Amino acid sequence: MPSTPPSPAELSSLASSLEELSRRLRALAEAAAPADGQEEGIASDLWEIERVLSSAKRRLENLIR
After folding, report:
1. Burial of 12 (C-beta count, 10 Å sphere; 0-12/13-18/19+)
2. Range with the lowest mean pLDDT among 16-20, 34-38, 39-43?
3. Cα 23 to Cα 16: distance, rounded to the nearest angstrom
4. How many CA atoms lie within 13 A of 29 on its CB side?
5. pLDDT, tens digit (0-9, with 9 covering 90-100), for 9-35
6. If we measure between CA atoms, which residue out of 36, 35, 34 comes closest to residue 46?
7. With a threshold of 0.85, does the pTM exceed it?
């Protein structure tokens, strides 16, 4: 039985969810960043996760086009 590709609406919904998660991660990373602006520890990890989610969101948006 052939699989049905996801609808553009479903992909858009997922992209929106990833954008919300990215926004929340940015806020957490900014709050966790040391005062001198250096990315260390948890802030660095949060920024990396945010970058991966942003990349995933762009890939989903490309599938919609």
Report:
1. middle
2. 34-38
3. 11
4. 19
5. 999 999 999 999 999 999 999 888 876
6. 34
7. no
